Amino acid sequence: MYDDIQYEATEGIATITIDRPDVLNAFRERTIAELNDALRTANADDSVYVVVLTGADGGFCAGADVTEMADWHEELSREEYAGYLWSVQNVVRQLLAMETPSIAAVGGPAIGAGCDFALACDLRVVGPDALFREGFVRVGLIPGDGGAWLLPRLIGESKAKEYLLTGRDITPEDAVDLGLAVELASDPNDAALELATELLDLPAHAVRRTNALVDSEQSFEDYCERAIEYQWECVNDDEHHEAIAAFSENRAPAFDREY
């Protein structure tokens, strides 16, 4: 189905793997088109309850393939470049907009836009060889894919500026200490799947709507209005009824789902 990524949806979990390990899973235009398509597919699939984003050979994504960048200013018009950048931004846009929770399994370098793809996920698990780097300034660019919007919201403005303005690496240990990553695991893909399974075992509508409620841009009153609507949906949801019955009967819930 794809050339630069792998897509697998099994038992409620969609795993999207950037598959260009010879260049540390750096992306080209085809990769971005396929990522956007895979995210649309996962988001539209009612049998997908969690999305895991990762990279081949235990890595993640080293950003744009620099071999394609050298002559962009000569080969592309401003409008053509804007269209390309919009498509990269749209990977971040889709990840942020999805109510279905997403987990980044970061086993290697997450650099530039690759870093932003990880930051746009709802949760992150890191391995011992992981690193996050908003390294745009090192090559005379700005964080055009969302990094200067995402990172301050995750770790605070002052600390984010340290990494954005210097291009320094965020180590796996620092990522956990900063609250950027859920955990440091020897195998981040396995740990991400365990975390995905933990989410999968919960009432799905409540998980999705809780994810949607986390919005730092909304006012408290807007939050409360949305909460009334979402809570009423949950009160009438079959999985809520089953979870309450299971709790009362001291057993695990058995949700009626087709994967």
From TrEMBL:
Keyword set includes Isomerase: yes
Protein name: Enoyl-CoA hydratase/isomerase family protein
CDD domains assigned: crotonase-like (cd06558)
Keyword presence, Isomerase: yes
Coiled coil: none
Keywords: Isomerase, Plasmid
UniProt GO molecular function: isomerase activity
Record organism: Natronorubrum aibiense
